[in-house]
Amino acid sequence: MIPNTNYQNLKDSYLFYNISQKIKAYLETHPDSHLYRMGIGDVSLPLCDAVIKALHAAVDDQASGATFHGYMPECGDPKLRKTIADYYHRRGVELLEDEVFVSSGASDELGDILDLFGRGKTVLIMEPAYPAYVDANIMTGNEVIHVPAGKENGFLPAPDSDITADVIYICSPNNPTGAVFDKEKLQQWVQYANSINAVILFDAAYEAFIEEAEIPHSIFEIEGARTCAIEICSLSKTAGFTGTRCGYTVIPKELVRGEMNLNQMWVRNRTTKTNGVSYIIQKGAAAIFTEEGQKQIHDNIKIYKENAACLMEALDKLGIWYCGGKNAPYIWMKCPDGMSSWEFFDYLLEKIQVVGTPGEGFGACGEGYFRFSTFGSPADTKEAAKRLISLLGKNKI
Ligand code: PLP
Questions:
Q1: Tell me: the pLDDT tens digits for 67-99?
Q2: Ligand 1 centre from 365 Cα, in Å?
Q3: Which of 97, 273, 333, 386 has the most beta carbons within 10 angstroms of its beta carbon?
Q4: Atom of ligand 1 at shortest distance to CA of 109?
Q5: Comparing C-alpha atoms, which of 342, 20, 366 is closest to residue 174?
Q6: Nearest CA among 360, 393, 355 for reference residue 373
């Protein structure tokens, strides 16, 4: 038996491994150092009170025959599907409840959803990108078209009518750049996808961080998206669910390719390949969408946003180019003095014990850029910003 040989085409995922090796080596020679970790994409604040109460109550439900739940419906608890559809409705997007699928998180869905397209497809990935997009497609045997973005287009590329693809990934707010597509730019992608019969996979994992009213939270705010897009969303960063695991995926009923309805196909997929998300987790997730839950998660997001403001202020003072931070928990900066991403990583670690993520790890066009995450502790973020100013500002301020 020969296993899936596509795995031989995967490049070693060295980004976070290299970072951890460099940190380990530094701490071996500087054991008393405190590191200011601005690299990590995981949240640091605990789950909010409304979620914790709902989780506890759901655990108690499982202790009594009268309230016990066994298998949950594979596509999600109908009540939670309705709750999520109502959340979209409040933002002016109309969804049917059975267009919303409850999931165990965006990563799982981003990989699994490729089942809908079959093998050997052509997939357009704008880079720099969340590394899982490329790897999931290589594992499936798809051909990846890397579309590089840069400072000149604010890391928001427009479609190129000379390129054609079956699937198009769009991540907005973006990881790693923090850049956001406005309605006009998304409209171009929707028109392009409809014109070439492609499907957009819209990753909205960071929608809750959008603060500018005119920036779309959902691809379905764009005319024509119901015939060309799937939206994948996560509660990980929205509500601190990275370790609790829940998300949702929206597939409109109008999404049809080759006379096949992708919503119906996904129902068939889920009912075959999953037995649903746990009752307890779905109860916790539902609490996020209550008035109290929304207030509490936004109180937490506010703390991350204060971290972002602090780092942006430092970069503004230093006159360093960056994007993101405003509508996203990531800040993407140009490395100073022509340094490469990894040179800048070493420089910050060595000189001021600040750890970020080298942009080159998100695709070749990320070389010369650096990502800061704003999910760290406020005290560490403030100190990191201070240290950045004193290190990089010597000749400038
Ligand atoms: N999509 C993007 C752009 C992400 O940055 C992440 C996590 O960092 C995910 C998806 C994965 O989210 P989840 O925790 O729901 O699997």
A1: 999 999 999 999 999 999 999 999 999 999 999
A2: 21
A3: 333
A4: 16
A5: 366
A6: 355
State mean pLDDT over 238-246.
98
Query: How far apart are the CA of 32 and the centre of ligand 1, in A?
Result: 33
List the one residue out of 389, 243, 247 whose CA is nearest residue 310.
Answer: 389
Of 106, 330, 85, 314, residue with least CA distance to 203: 106
Q: Would you state the pLDDT for residue 397?
A: 44
Domains of the chain: 5-47+293-391 (3.90.1150.10), 49-290 (3.40.640.10)
Q: How many residues does the structure list for the chain?
A: 397
Q: Give the per-residue pLDDT at 103.
A: 98
Give every CB contact of residue 238 below 8 A, 6+ residues apart in sequence: 205, 207, 208, 288, 297, 301
Residue 395's pLDDT is what? 55
41-to-45, 128, 162 alpha-carbon distances in Å:
12, 15, 35
Task: Report the atom number in ligand 1 closest to the C-alpha of 247.
Answer: 15
